[in-house]
Amino acid sequence: MALQMFNKFITYTSFLALILISPLIIAEDDPRLFVELPEMMQNHMMENMRDHLKAINEILLNLSNNQMDKAANLAEQRLGMSSLVKHGASHMDKFMPKGMRQAGTNMHKAASRFALKAEEGDILPAYKILSEITSACVACHSAYRIK
Length: 147
What we know:
By secondary structure, the protein is mainly alpha-helical. It contains 6 helices and 2 strands; from the N terminus they run αβαααααβ.
């Protein structure tokens, strides 16, 4: 009986230890560059990135409904160069490596180019530029992490 209880104790504590150290193991194995940000900025950046993802989804929905003007407006206001002030991006520059800043700039510029092309109503070139937006996101997320 005591041996069974000891085995259960070992099993449960091993499981608990595995749960507690898993994030550390994953972080150690993550080859991306860790960019250390103050917690408030980290939360702000995560909030911005979630909004970017929502904006891309809304853009795709508008494109699928042939609402090019709405897609263009969303792209410029939420992702484009016009969105930088709203996102408070300038105060985060000093914390980001050059490559991370460049990926962000590429994404914002592509979003503004997308907005202009979508306003013209030419959907295939607009989709091509939309892929430049998401490619900038993929490049950044493949190279950097903040958690």
